[in-house]
Amino acid sequence: MAKRWTEADFDTEVLNSDKLAIVDFYSDSCLPCKAVSPLLAELEETYADQVLVGKVNAVYERGLVFRWEVSSAPTILFLKNGKEVARFSGVQKKEDLVREIEKHL
Question: Is the pTM value of this prediction over 0.90?
Answer without folding.
Answer: yes
